[in-house]
Amino acid sequence: AYDAAPFVPAHADLAALREAAAGCRGCPLHRDATRTVFGAGSADARVMLVGEQPGDQEDRQGRPFVGPAGKLLDRALAEAGIDPGEAYVTNAVKHFKFTRAASGGRRVHKSPGVRETAACGPWLAAELALVEPELIVVLGATAGKALLGSSFRVTRVRGTVLEEEIHGRRERLVPTVHPSAVLRADDREEAYRGLVSDLRVAAEALG
Ligand code: URA
To answer: What is the ipTM of this complex?
Structure first.
């Protein structure tokens, strides 16, 4: 089975984790991706944001949420009263999964499957254990299923504070839509308002 666990060092700090993740071969996604995109931010961060997987820009630059979805997310966070620079930002899956639009053409995002998400889980668990955030903001269905299981439905729980045991730790989580879904929405303004409103719940929970 696909599994990152053999690549995750014990007793590592974030820098050592990031270095080890660069060599992860726990699933086949490393073959076509440019590089591992590990989480970014301080181990002291009070809030952790969890997305799906790096996109095209993130894969090129090696940092999460630096592309169009990330720009929108940063704007929404600031508007909700959360400093994006103070957050720890990561993804459920740490390699870009894509298909080619045509031979040699544009790389088109492909959602990770449960096998890849489960395989990558030990990296997310290690990040959670080190950062110990006061609150997790869950961005969309893939992150939700990775953290809370396959019954997770973003439409049902978005904008609420959940309390769940994850990897042996009691966590508080606020789910919301993925910022890419806002970019794809028919009514982008309304979708953006919804994202900001959910993030305000997170800001309130952080106090
Ligand atoms: N979408 C994600 O889920 N994560 C990123 O890092 C960028 C886009």
So the answer is: 0.93
Q: What is the pLDDT along the chain (207 residues), one digit of tens a residue?
A: 999 999 999 999 999 999 999 999 999 999 999 999 999 999 999 999 999 999 999 999 999 999 999 999 999 999 999 999 999 999 999 999 999 998 888 999 999 999 999 999 999 999 999 999 999 999 999 999 999 999 999 999 999 999 999 989 999 999 999 999 999 999 999 999 999 999 999 999 999
39 CB near ligand 1 (under 6 Å): no
**What is the CA(13)–ligand 1 centre distance, in A?**
23
**What does pTM read for this prediction?**
0.98
Structure tokens at 125: 């668990």
CA of 18 relative to ligand 1 center, distance in Å: 17
Sketch out the chain's domains with CATH numbers: 5-206 (3.40.470.10)
Q: Which atom of ligand 1 has the smallest separation from the CA of 69?
A: 8
* Helix (H/G/I), strand (E/B), else coil: 122: helix
Cβ pair 52, 91 in contact under 8 A: yes
Q: Is 88 in the pocket of ligand 1 (CB under 6 A)?
A: no
